[in-house]
């Protein structure tokens, strides 16, 4: 089914103006088993998952995002990412509720300061859609007081007091679920801080709620350049005309766009799916930035795949497609070590002055390392003879 047929079937009385209005989409988000079963014939597992008690993470899907699920396919990628399963209730060894120890690196409520020159600024706990593998399920969907101006003021004072912070990453929750006024308030306050060279927004809204990207919003963002955007993409099915339009508007507003993708078992963990996604992203001017190994969040075992799989995917991309289509494959180290890039080991052997390298076709090439000093006399003799 496509979005048009979905609308005809389930929202015949909703006019274009309403459907294309992001506030309507948010007001009508689907949150319960009863609501969901109107649209999809839910499996036993899904019904159980939806009725789990003590679930950390609420359920929410915008009508638009639901419309791109194929109802005939119980293994649909977007369906798996958004509808809980019973596995979510079980913690496996090595899993944690705050796997990246963000709380430990939080000098002020709402700030994570892990790297010397940049901070993560969590401005809201709300998302339009809750991804079941969310790294921040400990806070999202809950009212933990990071989305009021009083707590924002404290975060901004912290950034102001640290001249080494040149890069602020606004995330949450999803910052673009907030009003234009709040977004402008934050951007304008951050832009006033001289040492803040760049601002980034981390969001999935262009994918789950593309209607939110309005001319008013892009006009606000462009006033505070340089503003970059990292968009959470998971699967090629997400690149619809709506998302394409949203990304075009953002790119036309001069916002450099990057994608962040979590490697998810049986959802996108094969090179064909990711290559397709990355090609589609480049066509809409989004540079694949990070491919994340899935964080060991509690109840995520059914989403996680092996590092070997990730490396194999990178190996199948590098050399076989544009370099721009190949993201950095990273593990955000448990306990707060930060992002660590992992890549296929291409140095086969090293000696004092030679390095043997493996290319994308698995052929070995030799590079002369440590060239030593030039023969000054020979160069001089040659130059004199000219
Ligand atoms: C990911 C992250 C950043 C940004 O890292 P980049 O590699 O610069 O994109 C900054 N702070 C925290 C805490 C992060 O998790």
List keywords for this structure.
globular, TIM Barrel, 15 helices, 386 residues, alpha/beta, 9-stranded mixed sheet
Describe this structure in words.
Strand 11 and strand 12 form a beta hairpin. The chain has a nine-stranded mixed β-sheet with strand order 1-2-3-4-5-6-7-8-9. A three-stranded antiparallel β-sheet has the order 10-11-12, with no helix packed on it. It is built from 15 helices and twelve strands. With 386 residues, the chain is an alpha/beta fold. The mean pLDDT is 95. It folds into two domains: 3-89, no CATH class; 111-345, Aldolase class I (TIM Barrel, Alpha-Beta Barrel). Bound molecules: pyridoxal-5'-phosphate. Pyridoxal-5'-phosphate binds next to strand 1 and strand 2.
Task: Chart the SSEs and their pairings.
Layout: H1 3-10, H2 16-19, H3 22-27, H4 33-39, H5 44-50, H6 63-67, H7 77-82, E1 111-115, E2 118-122, H8 149-160, E3 167-171, H9 180-191, E4 198-203, H10 205-208, H11 215-222, E5 227-232, H12 241-252, E6 257-263, H13 271-283, E7 286-293, H14 307-317, E8 328-333, E9 338-341, E10 347-350, E11 354-358, E12 364-368, H15 376-385
Parallel strand pairs: 2-3, 3-4, 4-5, 5-6, 6-7, 7-8
Antiparallel strand pairs: 1-2, 8-9, 10-11, 11-12
The structure holds pyridoxal-5'-phosphate (PLP).
Overall shape: it is: globular
Q: How many DSSP H or I helices? A: 15
Per CATH, the architecture of the largest domain is: Alpha-Beta Barrel
- Determine the N-to-C terminus distance: 75 Å
H/E element sequence: HHHHHHHEEHEHEHHEHEHEHEEEEEH
- Which molecules are bound besides the chains? pyridoxal-5'-phosphate
Strand content: 15-25%
Count of extended strands: 12
Largest sheet: 9 strands, mixed
């Amino acid at each position: 089914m496509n979005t048009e047929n979905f609308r005809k079937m389930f929202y015949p009385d909703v006019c274009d103006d309403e459907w294309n209005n992001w506030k309507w989409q948010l007001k009508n988000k689907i949150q319960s088993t009863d609501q969901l079963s109107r649209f999809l014939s839910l499996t036993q597992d899904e019904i159980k998952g939806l009725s789990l008690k003590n679930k950390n993470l609420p359920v929410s899907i915008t009508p638009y995002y639901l419309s791109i699920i194929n109802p005939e396919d119980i293994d649909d990628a977007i369906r798996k990412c958004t509808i809980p399963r019973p596995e979510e209730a079980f913690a496996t060894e090595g899993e944690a509720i705050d796997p990246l120890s963000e709380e430990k690196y939080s000098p002020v409520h709402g700030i994570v300061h892990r790297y010397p020159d940049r901070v993560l600024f969590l401005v809201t706990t709300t998302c339009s859609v809750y991804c079941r593998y969310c790294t921040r399920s400990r806070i999202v969907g809950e009212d933990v007081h990071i989305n009021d101006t009083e707590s924002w003021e404290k975060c901004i004072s912290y950034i102001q007091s640290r001249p080494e912070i040149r890069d602020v990453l606004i995330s949450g929750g999803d910052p673009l679920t907030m009003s234009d006024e709040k977004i402008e308030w934050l951007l304008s306050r951050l832009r006033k801080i001289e040492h803040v060279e760049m601002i980034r927004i981390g969001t999935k809204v262009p994918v789950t709620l593309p209607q939110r990207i309005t001319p008013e919003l892009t006009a606000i963002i462009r006033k505070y350049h340089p503003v970059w955007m990292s968009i959470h993409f998971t699967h090629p099915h997400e690149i619809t005309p709506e998302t394409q339009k949203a990304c075009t508007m953002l790119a036309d507003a001069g916002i450099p766009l990057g994608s962040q993708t979590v490697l998810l078992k049986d959802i996108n963990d094969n090179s064909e799916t990711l290559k397709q996604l990355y090609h589609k992203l480049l066509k809409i001017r989004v540079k694949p930035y990070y491919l994340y190994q899935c964080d060991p969040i509690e109840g995520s075992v059914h989403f996680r795949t092996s590092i070997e799989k990730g490396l194999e995917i990178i190996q199948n991309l590098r050399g076989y497609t544009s370099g721009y289509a190949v993201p950095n494959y990273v593990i955000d180290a448990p306990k707060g070590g930060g992002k660590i890039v992992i890549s296929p080991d291409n140095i086969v052997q090293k000696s004092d002055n030679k390095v043997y390298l493996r290319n994308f076709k698995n052929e070995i090439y030799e590079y002369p390392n440590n060239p030593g000093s030039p023969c000054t006399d020979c160069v001089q003799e040659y130059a004199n003879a000219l």
